[in-house]
Amino acid sequence: MELCVALDLPTKQENLDLIHKIKDYDVWLKVGLRTYIRDGEDFLLAIKKINPDFKIFLDLKLYDIPNTMADAAESIMGLGVDMFNIHASAGKRAMKEVMERISSYENRPIVLAVTALTSFSEEEFCEVYEKSIATKADQFAKDAYDSGLDGVVCSAYESESIKNITSKEFMTLTPGIRPFGEDAGDQQRVADVEFALNAQVDFIVVGRPIYRAQNPATVVEKILKKL
Ligand code: C5P
């Protein structure tokens, strides 16, 4: 299991300060919407300058018509990131078109599909998708698997079932991790490191418990020891 640190701080400088603090650890860095919209490709280059071995997960959760998603995915190929994601609810045609478009690129990044956002409660989710989270997450994962994606973003609670209906090699990445039972914030379905390990999760994403800590490096080290 790998640790992916979410760079969700309010300014570029604060994110860079955090990266400097954890630069010697073997972790992935997650660049999300806020950071990418504000700091763009320059920020990705700045990460590699601090430590070229950092792997980058570009978390933009693409959702659009198939051709626009494939165009965007192709643009991502020029950024040198190691992983990016799209929404499974954009449909199988969109997912297939993305995978077809990038298939000819050498060392293409890992592509994941978002199933159910971990911030959804069961009730909120049902209002939008008219099915339970478990049912729909399985279905989205099966669609993503059939469309040739490498894995899904889901909660730790769905990881095992998703692997059972797809393949053990089909990756799961789970946000909403509170490594040692920290405050959940706006996340509804949180799990700790132990739970994620048992659920065969491939990547855990941790944001606030690391960047809000007095000493982020200590928290990273503590998590890595558990893995
Ligand atoms: O601070 P926290 O650990 O809750 O951060 C979780 C990160 O994972 C945030 O960057 C959030 O945008 C992202 N994320 C999520 N749920 C998803 C996909 C991504 O929380 N389904």
Textual characterization of the structure:
Its EC number is 4.1.1.23. Keywords: Decarboxylase, Lyase, Pyrimidine biosynthesis. It is a single chain. The chain is of the alpha/beta class and 227 residues long. It has a single domain (2-226), classed as Aldolase class I (TIM Barrel, Alpha-Beta Barrel), CATH 3.20.20. It contains 10 helices and 8 strands. It has helices spanning 12-21, 33-50, 66-77, 92-102, 122-129, 133-146, 156-165, 193-198, 208-211, 216-226; strands at 2-6, 28-32, 55-62, 83-87, 110-114, 151-153, 171-174, 203-206. The termini are close together. Residues 6, 8, 32, 59, 114, 117-118, 153, 175-176, 185, 187, 205-208 line the site of cytidine-5'-monophosphate. The site of cytidine-5'-monophosphate has 16 residues, from strand 8.
Short characterization:
Helix content is 46%, strand content 17%. By secondary structure, the protein is of the alpha/beta class. The model has no long low-confidence stretch (mean pLDDT 96).
How many discrete domains?
1
Please identify which CATH superfamily we are dealing with.
Answer: Aldolase class I
The fold-level CATH name is TIM Barrel
How many strand elements? 8
Distance between the termini: 6 Å
CATH architecture: Alpha-Beta Barrel
Count helical runs. Answer: 10
Instruction: Say which molecules are bound, naming each kind only once.
Output: cytidine-5'-monophosphate
Amount of beta strand = 15-25%
Rounded radius of gyration (Å)? 17 Å
What is the helix/strand order? EHEHEHEHEHHEHEHEHH
Largest sheet report: 8 strands, parallel, barrel
Please tell me the overall pLDDT. Answer: 96
Helix content: 40-55%
Q: Based on CA inertia axes, which overall geometry fits?
A: globular
Q: Which stretches are low in confidence, meaning pLDDT under 50 for 5 or more residues running?
A: none
